[in-house]
Design brief:
This protein is an alpha+beta fold. It has one domain: Heat Shock Protein 90, CATH 3.30.565.10. About 30% of the residues lie in helices and about 25% in strands. The protein contains 3 helices and 5 strands; from the N terminus they run βααββαββ. A 5-stranded antiparallel β-sheet has the order 1-2-3-5-4, with helices on one face. A hairpin with a 4-residue loop joins strand 4 and strand 5.
Length: about 140
């Protein structure tokens, strides 16, 4: 439930990878307005771009007739980002660990790892078609 301090920004794009630059601009601007430091801006930006890229390429199979939906919940001390695609879904726990020796040279499979590394919370729902990520403004652990 949104508090009076929280604002919601919504963005919807077709599943076309060349539109990913829109996320870069939107996320960077939101985080700078929230006065996140440069490192946090870079981390959250990369995580959101990875989530958007995964939604376009894997969730929606780059089908331009399918959409990717973004919600940015701007709070006083945190940014919550929700990314939803129109795909079949997946189980994120079955994605191989990119740090395992047999996966180190793989050209894909790092997105979920990066999202979990750079955001303070990452949770999947709706059969893996929806991911919610949180970046706290002040987090001693990251």
């Amino acid at each position: 439930m949104a508090t009076s301090q929280e604002h919601i920004i919504r963005l919807e794009i077709p599943s076309e990878i060349q539109l990913i630059y829109v996320l870069d601009a939107v996320v960077s601007e939101i985080l700078r307005e929230m006065e996140f430091d440069d490192e946090a801006v870079e981390q959250a930006n990369l995580a959101v771009i990875e989530a958007g890229t995964n939604a376009i390429l894997h969730g929606n199979s780059s089908d331009p007739n399918k959409r990717v939906y973004f919600q940015f919940l701007v709070g006083e001390d945190k940014l919550t980002v929700i990314v939803k695609d129109e795909g079949e879904g997946f189980n994120p726990d079955l994605v191989p660990n990119p740090l395992d020796l047999e996966n180190l040279l793989s050209t894909s499979g790092r997105g979920i790892f990066l999202m979990r590394t750079f955001m303070d919370e990452v949770n999947y729902s709706e059969n893996g078609t929806k991911v919610q990520m949180v970046k706290y403004k002040f987090n001693e652990n990251k």
